[in-house]
C-alpha cells in the first residue's frame, strides 16, 4: 500500500515531467515554426514556361 505522502511525491514528480516535456516541445516548435498556409497541391501551382528567345 502506498502512503499518502508517497502518492503526493509521485504525483508531483509526474507533473514536473509533463511540464518539462511540454516546455521542450514548445522550444522545438518555436525553433522550427510550422508554415501556417498549407503547401499548394499540384493543381494549384502556377505553371511557368521558360522563354528561350526567338525560334
Which properties best describe this structure?
55 residues; mainly alpha; rod-shaped
Descriptive report:
The protein has a domain at 1-27. The longest helix has 28 residues, at 4-31. The chain has 55 residues and is mainly α. The protein is rod-shaped and about 90 Å long. The chain is 51% helix and 0% strand. The chain is built from one helix and no strands.
Strand-residue proportion: under 5%
Radius of gyration of CA atoms, rounded to a whole number: 26 Å
- How many strand segments? 0
Helix tally equals: 1
For the termini, the CA-CA separation is 89 Å
* Oligomeric composition of the shown chains: single chain
Principal-axis shape: rod-shaped
Order of helices and strands: H
> What's the rounded overall pLDDT mean?
83
Can you lay out the helices and strands and say which pair or pack?
Blueprint: H1 4-31
Précis, in short:
The chain has 55 residues and is an all-alpha fold. It has one helix and no strands.
Amino acid at each position: 500500500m502506498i502512503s499518502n505522502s508517497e502518492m503526493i511525491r509521485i504525483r508531483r514528480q509526474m507533473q514536473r515531467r509533463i511540464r518539462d516535456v511540454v516546455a521542450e516541445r514548445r522550444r522545438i516548435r518555436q525553433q522550427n515554426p510550422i508554415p501556417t498556409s498549407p503547401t499548394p497541391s499540384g493543381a494549384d501551382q502556377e505553371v511557368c514556361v521558360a522563354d528561350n528567345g526567338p525560334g
